[in-house]
């Protein structure tokens, strides 16, 4: 097990380097001068502009900028944004909010999707199954901003159950509605994936053997059917966690969530290379760790999976 984890860490190094290099290159290749955007319609002092270029190493070639950035990462220095605020401070302020929102959304979509998908698979062809498929198809078809605006109107304005925007500090109670909105589309995908996996697992020999031995459905469903059906669902949920971290831009914008998505979008518009690359670096690290944890969970879900040389 330790050897497997060590090999996965070694495999993550080129992934991390390649990702940061590509992102840094794309930010570097963006047209326009990001420093000029800071002054708006005003004409900056040439001496001040030159000093800022030297301070942010914008007068250096691309490859020099990239290696300077990597050196800072190894020292724990993520650089400074064009507004003068350390990127590490921006990360410390925004990432906890988005991670909290992503975990809430993941919990909603996983628990709700697995339960509905399990019942739908066990009742294939029945009214519940047909209703679940129709509802999931509706959620998949609707754009996320439509679901967000409808949620705000119904639960925030009409019923008054939730705030339409997130207040300062992003408390848990303010994130409930954005979490449901963020989870809605992937929730529908998990319902359909769990349903298909349960239907397939029910037809396998070991399930029929369990019924032949006289085991009760209360024992067979959670131990034999659900447990073996969760492997593709867990894989999808782990992948979706990374998507939730970076893909919450629209939801965070609509609900005024002070998280990663909105901050990253603003940094891209302003061409702030250190901020963009630092955010992406941290998200890639989280994504790699989550995938490693999921790989280790496979051994618990399926005893046939073992990590050996």
Automatic annotation (TrEMBL):
Topology relative to the membrane: Multi-pass membrane protein
Top-level taxon: Bacteria
Family that this chain belongs to: Belongs to the binding-protein-dependent transport system permease family.
A cellular component term, taken from the record's GO annotations: plasma membrane
Pfam families noted in UniProt: BPD_transp_1, BPD_transp_1_N
Chief site of localization: membrane
Subcellular location: Cell membrane
GO process annotations (BP): transmembrane transport
Protein name, entry field: Oligopeptide transport system permease protein
Gene3D superfamilies cross-referenced by the UniProt entry: MetI-like (1.10.3720.10)
Taxonomic classification: Bacteria, Bacillati, Actinomycetota, Actinomycetes, Micrococcales
Keywords attached to this entry: Cell membrane, Membrane, Transmembrane, Transmembrane helix, Transport
Membrane-traversing stretches: 12-30, 101-120, 132-155, 175-194, 233-255, 275-301
Domain ABC transmembrane type-1: 95-298
């Amino acid at each position: 097990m330790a050897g497997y984890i060590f090999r996965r860490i070694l495999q993550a190094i080129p992934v991390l380097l390649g990702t940061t290099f590509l992102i840094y290159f794309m930010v570097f290749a963006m047209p326009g001068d990001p420093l000029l955007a800071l002054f708006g319609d005003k004409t900056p002092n040439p001496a001040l502009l030159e000093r800022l270029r030297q301070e942010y190493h914008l007068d250096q070639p691309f490859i020099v900028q990239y290696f300077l950035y990597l050196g800072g990462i190894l020292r724990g220095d993520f650089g400074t944004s064009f507004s003068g605020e350390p990127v590490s401070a921006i990360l410390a302020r925004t990432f906890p909010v988005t991670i909290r929102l992503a975990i809430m959304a993941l919990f909603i979509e996983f628990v709700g999707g697995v339960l509905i998908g399990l019942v739908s698979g066990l009742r294939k062809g029945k009214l519940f199954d047909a209703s679940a498929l129709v509802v999931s198809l509706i959620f998949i078809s609707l754009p996320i901003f439509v679901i967000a605006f409808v949620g705000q109107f119904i639960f925030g304005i009409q019923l008054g159950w939730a705030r339409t925007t997130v207040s300062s500090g992003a408390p848990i109670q303010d994130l409930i509605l954005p979490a449901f909105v963020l989870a809605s589309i992937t929730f529908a995908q998990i319902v359909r994936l769990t349903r298909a996996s349960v239907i397939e697992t029910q037809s396998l020999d070991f399930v029929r053997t369990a019924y032949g031995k006289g085991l009760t459905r209360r024992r067979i469903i959670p131990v034999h059917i659900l447990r073996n059906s969760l492997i593709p669902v867990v894989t999808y949920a782990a992948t979706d966690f990374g998507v939730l971290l970076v893909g919450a831009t629209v939801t965070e914008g609509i609900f005024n969530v002070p998280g990663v998505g909105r901050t990253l979008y603003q940094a891209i518009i302003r061409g702030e290379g250190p901020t963009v690359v630092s955010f992406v670096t941290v998200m890639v690290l989280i994504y790699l760790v989550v995938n490693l944890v999921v790989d280790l969970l496979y051994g618990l879900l399926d005893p046939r999976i073992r990590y050996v040389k």
